[in-house]
Amino acid sequence: MLKIIIPTIMLIPLTWMSKPNMIWINTTTYGLLISLISLSYLNQPNDNTLNSSLMFFSDSLSAPLLALTTWLLPLMLMASQHHLSKEPLTRKKLYISMLILLQLFLIMTFTASELIFFYILFEATLIPTLIIITRWGNQTERLNAGLYFLFYTLMGSLPLLVALLYIHNFMGSLNFLMIQYWIQPLPNSWSNIFLWLACMMAFMVKMPLYGLHLWLPKAHVEAPIAGSMVLAAVLLKLGGYGMMRITTLLNPLTNFMAYPFMMLSLWGMIMTSSICLRQTDLKSLIAYSSVSHMALVIVAVLIQTPWSYMGATALMIAHGLTSSMLFCLANSNYERIHSRTMILARGLQTLLPLMAAWWLLASLTNLALPPTINLIGELFVVMSSFSWSNITIILMGINIIITALYSLYMLITTQRGKYSHHIKNIKPSFTRENALMTLHLLPLLLLSLNPKIILGPIY
Amino acid sequence: MNMFSSCMITALVILTLPIIMSSTKLYKNKLYPYYVKTATSYAFMISMIPTMMFIYSGQETIISNWHWMTIQTMKLSMSFKLDYFSMIFVPVALFVTWSIMEFSMWYMHSDPYINRFFKYLLLFLITMMVLVTANNMFQLFIGWEGVGIMSFLLIGWWYGRTDANTAALQAVLYNRIGDVGFIMTMAWFLLNLNTWDLQQIFITTNDNFNLPLLGLLLAATGKSAQFGLHPWLPSAMEGPTPVSALLHSSTMVVAGVFLLIRFHPLMEHNQTIQTLTLCLGAITTLFTAICALTQNDIKKIVAFSTSSQLGLMMVTIGINQPYLAFLHICTHAFFKAMLFMCSGSVIHSLNDEQDIRKMGGLFKVLPFTTTSLIIGSLALTGMPFLTGFYSKDLIIESANTSNTNAWALLITLVATSLTAAYSTRIMFFTLLGQPRFSPMILINENNPLLINSIKRLLIGSVFAGYIISHSITPTTIPQMTMPHYLKMTALAVTTLGFILALELNLTTQGLKFNYPSNYFKFSSLLGYYPTIMHRLTPKTSLTISQKSASMLLDSIWLENILPKSISYFQMKSSTLISNQKGLIKLYFLSFMLTMILSLLILNYHG
């Protein structure tokens, strides 16, 4: 694992020593090279995990997320060039360093083999994200958003620390690799119910579960583009990843503890997607659609069947790329219109036809058009929830319909119709932006050809 | 016999060539539409070879080639099913699309993005081919959704118009409701049969197929615009006329009926679903025929007639005659595409005038279009020895002789007679009588692109039914013997409809138009369906999502319960507990007093 971690650390001196006009190019290229290394982990030759050392390992659950993390850094760098173009050089370098630091923490979080280590890094990712949101956000509300972001996730995850210390006390180890062989079934008692809650709530808040999701739209709306991208693409997935890792400890309590959370997620995904129908703010719409998609992942993880785990893993990767692409598109609109309000950016297809094609493709992947991996994820989740209880198909069905509606509503409002006069003299789309969209879309399409590498360990 | 599958694959590959070419310089060429059209015609000719072989030998094939993935015990691979249905449907669809493409070269010639339009048309056709030839449900679903999305793009082709966008969104919405049924069926098959391959689904015996079949019926209702999910079909007329022609003839709307035909082995012994299908089809065919009676937009009338015919196909499935339904799909494709192209020709000639009240007397200025329009309408009503006759007559006969729901059959008969009525109305108002359009229009239909494409379909509308129904013996045997009066029913009701409509039109033409009756309003307002469903439902659901989901829950309750209340209590308690009240004067006073006191005391002491 050091072959990824050390190059990532070395990105920081690269940033600070690069010539002023080379900082973006150098870091982006170097970041892409690192992501190439991470691809090798996708090849998991046997059923066991790839143990790099006592501290780091990767298996087919963490490898796709690792690849996604490393893939996203160059994309974030490409996306934020315009946003930072007016900043002084030191601040640009500081910004890039923050992104690199975040990637470093994320890589270590996804590959940590020890739960406490995982916990520390899980919390550590908050710091660079907080700085990115509150320092480089666009409006004063960013401070409030940062506060929400920090306190929601921190409050959720503090009980986890206590729970982990307790588990360590009676089990003697918190190593993922060993725990799965030592684990005893938890007897059903009040204290164990609290243990379950303490372990799961941290990740539920991070996902976020409906009801605890308020920080997400605020953080997304206020964050700069790179912040939104990494938040939607990777940070939310930390929750799903953590839940999948920790539920092995909590059996058989999950079987009945899952009910309230399943209900909340099933209900919440319809609520959040119907909120999307009424959004006027483009970024807020995408943020709420993330909540709705993540609710599917929560449902899938709580059902705990092989098919649902496959669906959850596939959906996490698919959603990571799709929502990140949508945020990039929203940002490219924002840079031209200087507003996130959708109604001000009507009829862009007339002016920017290629951008309209990207919008179309992004919306189609968001509404899970076959045969993209989004569909594979959603289909598996729907199937496992259908087998869990036939009635859930009604809720899932409503969600599928509303998802299609708001995706196309977003597409039609921004791209179709007559363009308004104030957007007549906007800039054409840059090659940088088109390349950015292509780099989001290519993995989505290529993974559709061979989805089994992102179907997780159970596949 | 290897020619069989290889020719079929060649035909399908040829279709994809213009799509691949679109990344090259050829796409910028003015000849691109011509290439697309030629590719389609070549694909048609090549696909005729395996079809002939199929007709000769009756050999069914399944091609499995690319292994996609194996999930636990389920294998998913790309596979094509070349059986009766796909082998007959593919050439029909290719033939019809070929003509439509040639027609759109004429109709869309002034569109700046004509190349993209052709690419979309071709993609639409390809997704339909994928749907028809699919041998597993996943591949079928790819085609199914692809058709839906391409219809979204094509209906919303003139994206500057609000109506076009609304219609496109409507199409996706109604189709998406159907998709839920499809997804549920996929989930059910996976859980209970552990397979998505059609042949494996058909050989397993499970007594209770109600749930998946209901899902399929819902899917077919959405895609084929059956009653309840029908409004998107007439709205789809906002798209360009070639799109309507393609959408209504050989692609998209017949996909739902085709799905039910595909899964007919499961429906065969399930009375519940058959009755449901029958009733649904009967209601659809009558309701849409009634709606067609009072429309004034020529395209809307034809659209409602499609809807009515789709209802008839569903009825046919409901009386357990899938082969007849399939025959009707094939024959219907020819004359329906032609009807749309004729109305496109009329509309284009009259400077985009779609109202039949402003037409009239076109038989003198557009003789060729008139001929084809009349033949198409006659074929639609089931005039003997035209294409429609071979399927429609058989359908009515087998419906009459079957011992199912008599009400449903009666409704179907009424709808058949109404078909003749609205067809008369189109002919009467557009073609006959005195011209009512502006005299300044220069009318010219002598364009080879227009004439040839319609001519080809005209020949199809006259002979295709005979050829198709005589080269292939249907596997389910229709009723062979019946009383004389039953044999004549279909013809009699159609003739009755014709005569009644003609007489009514003639007698009422000079009359003053009174305040319309309620029956008229019911029909012209499409049964109040759009008024109720398209205003009330979205309004309530959008209000709910705004008021309760967004405002009440998200902005008020969730915000207040956690963050706001915590910060509030923190603030309150901190001010309560703290002994710093901000009383600066008092603090300083006490400070001063203490100082003075201490000074005094210390001084005294000292």
TrEMBL record, chain A:
UniProt entry tagged with the keyword NAD: yes
GO MF annotations, alphabetized: NADH dehydrogenase (ubiquinone) activity
Positions of the NADH:quinone oxidoreductase/Mrp antiporter transmembrane domain: 112-402
Catalytic activity as recorded in UniProt: a ubiquinone + NADH + 5 H(+)(in) = a ubiquinol + NAD(+) + 4 H(+)(out)
Listed InterPro entries: NADH4_N, NADH_Q_OxRdtase_chainM/4, NADH_UbQ_OxRdtase, ND/Mrp_TM
Organism for this UniProt entry: Canis lupus familiaris
Purpose of the protein: Core subunit of the mitochondrial membrane respiratory chain NADH dehydrogenase (Complex I) which catalyzes electron transfer from NADH through the respiratory chain, using ubiquinone as an electron acceptor. Essential for the catalytic activity and assembly of complex I.
Compartmental location: Mitochondrion membrane
Residue spans crossing the bilayer: 21-42, 54-73, 94-110, 116-133, 145-167, 193-216, 223-244, 256-277, 284-303, 309-330, 351-369, 389-413
Keyword terms: Electron transport, Membrane, Mitochondrion, NAD, Respiratory chain, Translocase, Transmembrane, Transmembrane helix, Transport, Ubiquinone
Class in the EC hierarchy, top level: translocase
Protein name, UniProt field: NADH-ubiquinone oxidoreductase chain 4
Annotated family: Belongs to the complex I subunit 4 family.
Primary subcellular site in the record, as a coarse category: mitochondrion
Any Pfam family the entry gives: Oxidored_q5_N
Membrane-topology annotation of the record: Multi-pass membrane protein
GO BP term, pick one: ATP synthesis coupled electron transport
EC number: 7.1.1.2
One CC-aspect GO term: mitochondrial membrane
NCBIfam families: NDH_I_M (TIGR01972)
From TrEMBL, chain B:
GO MF, any single term: NADH dehydrogenase (ubiquinone) activity
Membrane topology per record: Multi-pass membrane protein
Domain NADH:quinone oxidoreductase/Mrp antiporter transmembrane span(s) in chain numbering: 134-418
GO cellular component: mitochondrial inner membrane
Enzyme class of the recorded protein, top EC level: translocase
Transmembrane segments: 6-27, 39-58, 84-105, 117-134, 140-160, 172-191, 245-263, 275-294, 362-386, 406-428, 449-468, 488-506, 586-605
Domain named NADH dehydrogenase subunit 5 C-terminal: residues: 422-601
UniProt-listed GO biological process terms: ATP synthesis coupled electron transport
Cell compartment(s), UniProt: Mitochondrion inner membrane
Reaction catalysis annotation: a ubiquinone + NADH + 5 H(+)(in) = a ubiquinol + NAD(+) + 4 H(+)(out)
Start and end residues of each NADH-Ubiquinone oxidoreductase (complex I) chain 5 N-terminal domain: 68-118
Function: Core subunit of the mitochondrial membrane respiratory chain NADH dehydrogenase (Complex I) which catalyzes electron transfer from NADH through the respiratory chain, using ubiquinone as an electron acceptor. Essential for the catalytic activity and assembly of complex I.
Protein's name according to its UniProt entry: NADH-ubiquinone oxidoreductase chain 5
Classification of source organism: Eukaryota, Metazoa, Chordata, Craniata, Vertebrata
